[in-house]
Amino acid sequence: MLWRSSLFQVIALKEPTISTPTEATQQPENTVASTSSDIDNEWAQHNPVKRGSGTTFRERFDSFFEITFRKSTVGREIRGGLVTFMTMAYIVILNPLILGGVADVTGGSLDQVQVAAVTGLTAGVMTIMFGLVANLPFGLAAGLGINSFLAVSVVGQVTWAEAMGLVVINGLIIVLLSATKLRELIFKAVPAQLKIAITVGIGLFIAFIGLVDAGFVRSSGANSPPVQLGDGGSITTIPTLTFIIGLLIMGVLMARKVRGALLIGILGTTMLAIILEAVLKIGPSFVDGKPNPAGWSLNVPRLPDAIVSVPDFGLIGAFNFDAFARIGWLAGIMLVFTLVFTNFFDAVGTLTGLTKEAGLADKEGNFPRLKSSLIVEGIGAVAGGATSSSSNTIYIDSAAGVGEGARTGLASVVTGILFLLAMFLTPLTQVVPLEVAGAALVVVGVLMVSQIKDVNWSEFSIGLPVFLTIVVMPLTYSIANGIGVGFISWVIVRSFAGKAKGISPLLWIVALGFLVYFARGPIEVLFGG
User: Fold this and answer.
1) Are 284 and 238 a contacting pair, CB within 8 Å?
2) Contact, 9 vs 484, CB < 8 A?
3) The whole model's pTM is what?
4) 524, 329 in Cβ contact below 8 A?
5) pLDDT tens digits, 181-198
């Protein structure tokens, strides 16, 4: 186990304590923000207590997670971790539905029960590691963007084992970028106004996800308008009505500043959903493969027949690196390029939004332990590929726990432990319907969008890139797309506005990379043909 000890030491090297954010002086665009150690030292000066110090266990525990220092409490962290888990628990059910049963190029497929087991295992281990190392209240689990990309675009060309090998390579590249500080430098080269835009865009994105999951917003089936309110412009289903009731309950509790507002709202609305299902027998949204528009999305809220199930970890280690031999080096490199870009900037965007929402970032959007956060997130990608659960990344759903008051890694430890328990208690994770989780996401979206007040709308060369960043995320269902469009429009509009000198060279390089990313389809056809 020597390699594990060494790896932990590398991750934790020179990582200091974190406190509540301090006001930072606005820096010019062309000035890359201070190094991680500079930020760490600045924050450490405000925390006289060394992390993990104290004469009693309680004092050491408190100082290790800096609970008191961040003006939190153990109870608040536990509630936050529980809320984060409840808003993320759907991944244990959804990931097997996305990955399991999809035939690869040879006709093989992943077993859904095994996918559920490794999904909970990987999410639990990585979330606990993130909490202990980075000391931030964010959960990690299989990224929905990448798992969908694998199921839709990748396994039509390679086997599942080969696809997961590509995910492992993607993770190793991200770890390397993070360890060499290149990822950190790119993060800090992003202008503060774009970081605000990323936060706001993520807020709109998760609110839109909540509205769609609940059936409050549905596809119209037409080219224009592409979406509509409910079914034909009306709210016609009990699950959507349950979402509305839950949203109003959470909204009122939040407005009245009730402790545990989101948790109370989730539990209360879930109980209501269980009663409604028991009385009305609504059922799932699909019955025998046929759509049931009035049904519950994903989870049917009913008390399970069994509580405990034994997990099957047969997918651990089921990956290889034979994809390049099957499809060629160019096609393989393009797939890895897509995975890295999506993984890289989804995580950067999510970290930006969550740390700012939690009050752990300065005016430039930077925060301590950035390097640790990025390395652990990269390890999550490696672990996800190695277990065939798909790349594990930081979840925007963690904003629900932040909204509940979570500010430290203790909340992540709680979330991670619950994920590990979920491997054995899979039936209980299926009780909370997606409509209830969606209500919590909308509330959190409101909290994140409120930061739009800090955008400098008076200067159009700032306003347009910020606006595009914000709207592209929810409209394309991708954080990475929003970031890419924002970066490209920023360097072009700002340059022609006579402000090219204020743009970091790294931002130019990343913007060029995004141009390649957005044109990867034609490029692959051109050179592959």
Assistant:
1) no
2) no
3) 0.69
4) no
5) 787 787 778 888 988 888
